[in-house]
Structure formats: structure tokens, C-alpha cells
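Practice problem: predict the structure.
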Amino acid sequence: MKQSTLHIGFDDTDSRKGMCTTFLAYKIVEHLKKERVRFLDYPYLIRFNPNIPWKTRGNGAVALQIQTQNPNLIKKSIIDFVKKYSAIQDGANPGLVFYENSSIPKEFSDFGKMALCTLVNRNKAKEFATQNKIETFYLGNGQGLVGAIGAIGYDFHDHTFELISYRHKSNFGKKRLILKDSVKKMQESTFPKTFNSYDDSKRRVLIAPHGPDPVFFGVRGEDVSSVVRGASLVKSPEKFSGYMIFRSNQGTGDHLQNELDIEDLKPFSSGYLVGLVHETPKTKFGGHVIFTISKSDKKADCAVYKPTGLTSVASSLIKGDLVRIGGGIRKASKTHDRTINVEFIDVIKLAINTAQVNPLCTKCTKRMKSKGKGQGYKCTKCGRTSKNKVSEKIARTIKEQLYLPIPSAHRHLTRPLQRISKLNTKIEFDNSKKWFYTLD
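Answer:
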């Protein structure tokens, strides 16, 4: 019988109260392996625009690529899985798409890029599906169709991998017991092949969620072997029920590759902006820092929040510094204009910082003292005088470099420092590797 290539995408099956889109993918793959379909690539885990107001924490969609002799039977079974494992009662709006074709048109990747950086209306997704002969199934308002379409056509210019392990059903909702020191040692022994597992500054484990969803922990890294090794080093009295490895855009910074238009900062969009610091940054109540950058006589407010660990950098900026700011646009309110919520600060060129100080005595090389208002300055040792203060250069406390938040404040998409010059473009699918494992 003829083999059909089937692209499957789904999103928005979870809620803040539980379930997980990757767990649904895990159960679907478990089923598909019994159906003896041929997998053409690792499952995709695509993180989209993290500034969408109604997103769950990760804003991740999943895509699968398979070959099958019976695509209609596969479609029916996956619809059943979506119905069974979606948290509809808690507000999930699942979207599922099928595209039966050996290749993906460029328009699909364009749609995915749009969902990565902007706010995409679900009606636009429905229209796109109709125009491109994509089969859809959705529950609720269909918002999940946006991520589902974006995931199947995602264009990886760089990618990473994540091994996500899942809990036994009897442990859902219980506290996860992961030995902190094992995660710290795992990160040290696998660096730089894994990333964002442990925050040394906060002594905080970063691989495990805190909610009641089925995920036990996830290890992110550069290749399949590294995440498998990393996971094997994590110690816990709890045993996972299985794992699956995803090809992902996590740690790529893809959502901040889009240059923002300072004249038209669209709410909830993501990207970067280059400009000059317009005025001295101000520290607000709670330790947050606000400053303004300007470009072509237009201005944009920037907010750096204390938990990012970037406030000391932001408060050290001065008027005239040339910076590249990455982040998402917070919509305007009664108390503030549209604001860039800062995710990185790239200092391109530091301005010279000067201050007016009392002159030095040319003979004694000591700082003169004021003789009184408007009366000039006098050396208390030799008696020499001077009329005016002098301008003196002040050393800057920051450098011309990229500054990122502390690891615990990273978003899923944040490109960590160890990946700044790293690009994974040619890691092919190897079905012989243990990318899927289950004890059930």
C-alpha cells in the first residue's frame, strides 16, 4: 500500500491547572509506535511568542512527522487522544491540524515566524488552514490552531533538544522530590552540552515545573546523547514512567530576532530595538528600573524588573549610551505608555561619563577646597587658587557587551551565554537512538 506523509500539529491542550501538551504528544507517540508508523523526525516542541497574555507558562506547541499506510485511521485516533487529554474544563482551547504532503510550503514557516513574534488572531489561523487545505479539529474557540499550524511549518535555523520525563499517574499533583546537588553536578559535568538546569546564584533547580502537570523534569541540550546522559545523572526517590526527546527552538532566542518599529510598537509583540539612552534611568519602588531609549526622534520606555538580575546594569546606563534592547511590548495603561519588558541589554557603545569636580592643585596634586559660593577654590597646603571647577572623566561600571538575566529568570526561548555563537543546523534524525522510552 502507498505510504502517505502526514504532518500533525497541536497546541493549547493544557491549562494553568494541569495537563501538558508534551504529555499528550508522549501518549500519541506511544500509540503510533504500536501502529508501526514510520517517524521522519524527532517530535517538535516549538515555543511561540512568550508575551501572549493568555498563554500557559511555556506557550509550546508540538508537531509530529510520520509516514503511514492508513492516514485516516491515524487522524481519527489522534482526535480521540486530544479529546481525552486536553484540559478543556480548565480553559484549554485545543487546536489540531493535519497536513498530508511530502513537503511543507514556505508560507507555513512564514506563519510560524509571525506566531513567534506577534499576536496572531485565531481567525487568521482558520483562514490560513482553509487556503492551504489543512485539515483542522478544535475545541473551544480554536486558539490552539495558531500554534498547531506554526509548529508543523517551523523553520529551524538553529535548534536544541529537550528530554522530558513523565510521572506515574499516582504521582500527579504531588511534590517533586529531586536532589538539588545531583542537578548541580549534572550541569557541571555536562556543560556546555546542556544548559539552564541549575541557577548557581539562587541555588535553584530549573529542570522541574512546580504545577500539577504530568511532567517530572526536562533536560535541555545540544544533542540527543547529551540530554540522555544529563537525565541519567538526575537523582530522585521518585521514578519516572517514561520520557521523550523533542527537537526544539528553546535556547535559540528566535523570538528576539525581529527588529521592532519604534514608531509602531504593537502590544504583545517581541523583538529588539537599537537606540540611545535618552535620560538617566530611574529606580522605582520594588527595585525595578525604568529608562527611555530614542531613535529618529522617537522614544520608547524600557522596564527592567528586579528578579531578572539586570537592574544593576540598567541603573548604570547614562544618557548617550548606544544599546540594543530585546523584549516584549507591554500594552499601555492609565499609568504608563507602551513599554518594552527587557529580556536582554546589549551595550554597543558607552558614552563618556564626566562630572564637574574641584580642581587639582598643580603643585601639590591635591584637590582644592571651595572658598565659598562664587569665590573660587584654594589649595589648603600651598595657597594656590583657581576660579572654576573642572570636568573629569568617570570610569564606567559596565562594559560594551551583552547582558542576560540570571538563569532562573530566563524564558524558554532565551539564548544562554554559552549558546551565543552556537548554531545546530545539521543534526539529522537517528531513529536508532533512544529518543522514546516507556515503562508502561
